[in-house]
Amino acid sequence: MKRWSRLFFPLFLGGILLGMYGVLRQNPSLMTAAGADTEKAATLLRILLFLACVPLTLFAVRLIDLLAFDVLTPRRGKVSAPTLLREIVSIVLYTLAFASAVSLIFNRSVTGFLATGTIVAAVLGLALQETLGNLFAGIALHLENSFTPGDVIRSGEHFGIVEAVRWRGTRLRTFNNNLVVVPNSMLARDRLEVYPRNNFNARVLPLNIDANVAPANVIAILVQAASHVEGVVQEMPCIARLAGFVEGQLTYEIKYFTADYSQRDRIDADIRKAVWYALRRNGIALGEPIRAMHRYAPPAQRLQPEPGTIRRRLSRVDILSPISRDVQQKIADASRVHVYSSGETILNHGAQGDSMFIVHDGNVSVRVDDSEVARLGPGDSFGEMALLTGERRTADVIALTDVVVLEIARDALQPFMHEIPDLATAISAKVMERQNKLDSRRVASPDDHASMLSRIRAYFGL
């Protein structure tokens, strides 16, 4: 009712105004009696005639829109015309009708108006560049018949059902029932994937089935189950195929066609349900991943020496030779293994320390004042005085190659110094013997006057 009143009310109003115009034109004395002269009366008649043309034009344009897009187009194409097209056609008809009315009624040329309108259009075009871009993109999409309301489209991250094409953008209803307005210029610029309504659109649905069942049997069951689901067109056959092997199961794909792609989620769910019942009736299980579990075995550490090898290294160090084999094994168990790369500094001159080092693999350089005084290899030791007396390091030790060293700290040696009374004396004798051999190459220490034995005993609290 509202639609018909919107159509015929302008006709009724235009008829009244046109009737008033006819009465006044036939009886000009009415306007003369009201005080209007002949020229003013003619102007009033033109204005009244133009006012009558306005609602009549509205009626004519709306009638043309109704007949062209609501009556003729659906009967021929079985689709509704886009709103944007109807609005553009209406604007063009209104412009032509009103321009003709002004020209005929007021005897005014529209050329000057068009010239002024051109300047105004240029200004508006610069100000509304993006809006006009969306407008013309929408027109181009319609002229190419890219999609119509009801179609499903995908453009970039936007995916949904077309509800309307407006001046600025296209309104989509997503499958989560959200409303998205995508600018027409974006749709015209980006890749556009269209799933037309009433077109046979394909859909592929993956399923995992038990690998112990012959594929020929499974394919027949899948095709039978999917073919009878509502929404799957019967004109195009369903296809089931073996797609791959994944973790001890077989992956199948069901390819079906539907004329309403907007129902894809519901059709997918119905096919899965039908397949479940069909597999259950035939005693076939869905696929489950099969995984083999293996206990992790870390790779052998080639640079980590065995405990027996560490003890043998310790037994060959002269200052530790007085220690029994059992004690050496305990010290070896408490020692730490370090790995240095070529060029790394192991010890710094002047640093505080309480441990000694034994080279297990590789070569090191002993330097004093940036001059090399010794080069040590496997089995050699350094840093003994820090272990026995706690004095600061007297030289820099730098790795010449990748080096594996054994570190013996004070904590590993101290318990045995207390348990074995003569151990400090034996180690002190070995240290003094070693220093006597190296006197020619070493700079005399300021602590040479003190007894080595007393220094060891004082450091270990004996």
Short description:
This protein is of the alpha+beta class. Helices cover 48% and strands 20% of the residues. The chain has 4 domains: 2-127; 144-195, Roll (SH3 type barrels); 201-281, 2-Layer Sandwich (Alpha-Beta Plaits), CATH 3.30.70.100; 307-439 and 448-460, Jelly Rolls, CATH 2.60.120.
Set out the fold topology:
Elements (H helix, E strand, L loop, with lengths): L1 H25 L2 H5 L4 H40 L5 H24 L4 H17 L1 H15 L8 E4 L2 E8 L3 E6 L4 E5 H6 L3 E3 L5 E10 L4 H13 L11 E8 L2 E10 L5 H18 L25 H9 L9 H10 L1 E5 L4 E3 L7 E7 L2 E5 L2 E6 L4 E2 L1 H6 L6 E4 L3 E7 H10 L3 H16 L13 H9 L2
Antiparallel strand pairs: 1-2, 1-5, 2-3, 3-4, 6-8, 7-8, 9-16, 10-15, 11-14, 11-16, 12-13, 12-15
Helix pairs in contact: 1-3, 3-4, 8-9, 10-11, 14-15
Question: Could you explain how this protein is built, in words?
Answer:
With 462 residues, the chain is of the alpha+beta class. The protein folds into four domains: 2-127; 144-195, SH3 type barrels (Roll); 201-281, Alpha-Beta Plaits (2-Layer Sandwich), CATH 3.30.70.100; 307-439 and 448-460, Jelly Rolls (Sandwich). The protein has 15 helices and 16 strands. Strand 7 (239-246) and strand 8 (249-258) form a beta hairpin. Helix 8 (215-227) crosses helix 9. The protein is elongated and about 150 Å long. The termini are far apart.
Oligomerization:
single chain
Shape: elongated
Helix count equals 15
Highest CATH level, the class of the largest domain: Mainly Beta
- Briefly note the structural class of the backbone: alpha+beta
